[in-house]
Write a structure and sequence with these properties.
Length: 473
């Protein structure tokens, strides 16, 4: 593809994306494709000869779109969001256009330095502690996902607790880590991969608001120590996945300090709310964290993938993950004057992800970002009010931000039926969880373009389906 052909096709692709976003509400939010349907429409073998670019774009329209669940639809209320924005998409495109691989500072100094700079910007933007700044003892790095960030935190905790011996000798089965019964499943996976073992990840009980109980945590740690085990790590969550519960970080941090455990704070979605000073109290105690992460790819308008991960002591992380083969040696590394981000995560190679984050922050500005987050929270709170006032529905958990957990009082079958019908209709997309043993519907407001009319329509469709059930019953 020559530069001129690239220019022409590139314009067509941008036009296609812009058109897609303008007509996104005309598609069923949840893809209606049946298993195997998309593959069946594709040729069995790759083309022997290159095809015209127009044919590729046409196939995206006819073959791929039917298999798309429209995460960027303003009627997408499922899971946690994975929102995006024009500046984010364009920043990502530029990253592809530059095509750099930023494993070392020397393999593209701008890739490293912009990342360090943007992550330093975010520290005061989110009210995070000074030790997370690169000018202090810590620093931030962009990871692909919160799962990878949790794994890196757990590995560093394991190494710190074993005096960096388990990297050499492997784990001896004595290392123990702690999360709550509501912690995201990525911690279980991290425990498997880090050689700690799922049985050695203690899932601490939660209180009536689904938040970790620090007294239960302290008791479990004491019991493990008495049994000769080696506790090393606790994960506290700001906004759990099921119900957006807020773990009491300050009280958990006190327990961690007492036993010298690594405290990781996972604020995957809800961390974005800290852009607004009025929501920062939800993560009080973060100043005691050894590591912290949030996903701009969830709620901060930065298209997937983009996770921001900070540590208070970068030496522990680097000592855990650094390996220097001869072929990567270079003067800049040896000088000690630069950051080589390959030492801050699992993989070696890395994309230029900070470009899209930089674009998003500069396009919206801090006040613009705050405006949109406040708007989402306000819409979600309005929805919570409607649920509260409806005699047939109830709230199933506190709703501190933009996730509302609710259910029809008629029970699990009714809730499942309402959700299935809504999702099949394509009008909106909701998902569920189970709280206190009961099937619970979740509505999360976080897509970039969701407005009052979309949330109003969601509530009216939910009530419509609920009325049909009442009529049948
Ligand atoms: C609290 C929490 N932590 C971690 C994750 C995992 O996120 P990722 O897909 O970035 O690994 C999620 C995903 O929803 C989450 O809600």
């Amino acid at each position: 593809m020559t530069p001129d052909e690239f220019r022409r096709h590139g314009h067509a692709v941008i036009d296609w994306i812009a058109d897609y976003h303008s007509r996104i509400e005309s598609f069923p939010v949840l893809s209606q494709a049946k298993p195997g349907q998309i593959r069946a429409s594709l040729p069995a073998n790759p083309p022997a000869h290159g095809e015209p670019f127009e044919a590729l774009l046409k196939d995206v329209e006819t073959l791929i779109l039917p298999g798309i669940t429209h995460w960027q639809s303003p009627n997408f209320f499922a899971y946690f969001p994975c929102n995006a924005s024009g500046p984010g998409i364009l920043g990502d495109l530029l990253s592809s256009g530059l095509g750099v691989q930023g494993m070392l500072w020397s393999t593209s100094p701008a890739c490293t330095e912009l990342e360090t700079h943007v992550l330093d910007w975010l520290v005061p933007m989110l009210g995070l502690p000074e030790q997370f700044l690169s000018s202090s003892t810590g620093g931030g790095v962009i990871q692909d996902t919160a799962s990878s960030a949790a794994l890196c935190a757990l590995l560093a905790a394991r190494e710190r607790a074993t005096n960096y011996i388990s990297n050499k000798k492997g784990c001896d089965g004595r290392i123990v880590a702690y999360a709550s019964t509501q912690t995201h499943s990525s911690l279980e996976k991290a425990a498997m991969i880090a050689g700690i073992g799922v049985d050695n990840l203690r899932l601490i009980e939660v209180d009536e608001n689904f938040a970790m109980r620090p007294d239960a945590l302290a008791r479990q740690i004491e019991a493990d120590k008495s049994a000769g085990l080696l506790p090393c790590f606790v994960c506290a969550t700001v906004g759990t996945t099921s119900s957006n519960a807020m773990d009491p970080i300050t009280a958990i941090a006190q327990v961690c300090r007492q036993h010298n455990l690594w405290l990781h704070v996972d604020a995957a979605m809800s961390g974005t709310a800290a852009l607004c000073p009025e929501f920062r109290h939800l993560q009080n105690g973060v100043e005691f964290a050894d590591s912290y992460n949030f996903n701009p790819h969830k709620w901060m308008f930065t298209n997937f993938d983009c996770n921001c991960f900070w540590v208070a002591d970068r030496k522990a992380l680097i000592q855990t993950l650094s390996i220097l083969p001869e072929y990567l040696r270079n003067q800049a590394t040896e000088s000690g004057a630069v950051i080589d981000y390959r030492d801050w995560h699992i993989q070696l190679g890395r994309r230029f992800r900070s470009l899209k984050l930089w674009f998003v922050i500069r396009h919206y500005g801090v006040e613009g970002l705050q405006h949109h987050i406040r708007r989402h929270v306000q819409l979600a709170q309005q929805f919570a009010g409607w649920v509260r006032d409806d005699k047939n529905f109830e709230l199933a958990a506190p709703a501190p931000l933009n996730l509302i957990c609710f259910r029809h009082k008629a029970g699990d079958v009714a809730n499942q039926t309402i959700m299935d019908r809504l999702n099949r209709s394509g009008d909106l997309f909701l998902t569920h969880t189970r709280l206190n043993g009961k099937l619970t519907l979740r509505l999360c407001v976080g897509q970039t373009n969701t407005q009052a009319k979309h949330v109003e329509n969601a509530w009216s469709r939910i009530r419509e389906e609920a009325e049909k059930i009442a009529t049948v019953a």
